[in-house]
Design a protein that fits this description.
- It is built from twelve helices and no strands.
- Helix 8 packs antiparallel against helix 9 and helix 11 packs antiparallel against helix 12.
- The protein starts with a helix and ends in a 5-residue tail after the last helix.
Length: 333
């Protein structure tokens, strides 16, 4: 079963927020350098525990929720989370505005810890029916990962396609910078970009839930890949603030499909129940470096050439990713 391990790891993940809150109250003013070091340390711990949680959580959810209801569940879950993110951002901004530093950050960290412990309570009460799984290979976890990379061409094609899409999306990291350079947007307009992405993603989760229910997760990933192309084109042709908002809306809408469908698609690709954690873990482990360093490479490309050439290169990578996903990644009927 996945639940016992998930309870331990997710408790550690949530405890990081409590440590952040306590260290902020005790150290932020008196020992700012030590506090900064701890801040990065805790952030690293949170990322580590979150990665482990994601593997166990997606495996648990796909086990306890019937397959016919999974797409609706994830669509509703991500839509509600999108609304909650907007409300949380507004609440945090009020705290930051009226309460001085570092008390404001300490309060926000403690509030996050309390809310996450509420979610922990409900997660702990999820009932998981133990599954008897027949072992096909007597190999360890890491040996199984090696076998997956060598033997499962379907997963390999998915991985290459996803890397190509990540390379194609890298230009969106520079939306605000490019808009400031080309349009001279104000700070208020730049701040609205983040809100616009939240809103478009929330709307997207509802739409992609319908697509996932009617078709499958692969279809939504394919369609979202195509949507990145007009989003990039809008950036290339941007000569007014309206074009910027169109690009932001299209990007947020397309990205919501990948947020809600990526791990589920990996689960669908996985041929055996006992390999689900290995597949999800392998996907997150291999893609992690690309998420971290691709924006840096895009920035270097923009410096060496210019933003327009970088965006055109992004379109090429997105098209490659779409072709690989459409024609080379197969799902069993």
């Amino acid at each position: 079963t996945y639940k016992p391990a998930l309870k331990i790891v997710s408790l550690l993940q949530r405890g990081v927020w409590l440590l952040l809150g306590i260290s902020t109250f005790l150290l932020a003013k008196k020992f700012p350098v030590l506090y900064l070091v701890l801040l990065y340390f805790f952030y690293g711990l949170f990322g580590l525990f979150t990665s482990a949680c994601s593997v166990l959580w997606i495996s648990l959810i796909t086990k306890v929720i019937p397959q016919g209801y999974q797409a609706k569940f994830f669509g509703a879950r991500y839509s509600l989370c999108g609304v909650a993110e907007i409300l949380g951002s507004l609440a945090a901004s009020i705290v930051f505005k009226f309460i001085p530093y570092p008390t404001n950050y300490g309060i926000v960290f403690i509030i996050v810890f309390v809310l996450m412990m509420v979610s922990y309570y409900f997660m702990s009460n999820v009932y998981e029916l133990p599954t008897q799984v027949k072992k096909i290979r007597q190999t360890g976890y890491f040996s199984r990962i090696k076998e997956i990379l060598i033997e499962d061409r379907n997963f390999l094609m998915y991985f290459i396609s996803t890397v190509a899409i990540i390379l194609g999306k890298a230009g969106f990291s520079f939306q605000v910078i490019y808009a400031k350079v080309k349009l001279g947007i104000s700070s208020e307009q730049a701040a609205f970009i983040a809100t616009g992405i939240f809103i478009s993603q929330t709307a997207g989760y509802i739409f992609w839930s319908y697509i996932n229910t009617k078709f499958n997760y692969k279809k939504s990933i394919e369609m979202s890949s195509l949507l990145f192309i007009p989003a990039i084109v809008a950036m290339l042709l941007m000569d007014n603030i309206f074009m910027l908002y169109v690009s932001v809306a299209l990007f947020g809408f397309a990205q919501s499909a990948r947020n809600s469908g990526e791990n589920n698609l990996v689960i669908a690709i996985c041929p055996r129940e006992q390999d689900k954690p290995a597949y999800v873990g392998l996907r997150n482990t291999l893609l992690g470096p690309f998420f971290a360093f691709v924006p840096l490479l895009a920035g270097v490309a923009a410096d060496i050439f210019n933003y327009e050439i970088m965006f055109m290169g992004s379109i090429i990578f997105v098209v490659i990713g779409y072709i690989l996903m459409k024609f080379f990644v197969k799902l069993e009927k």
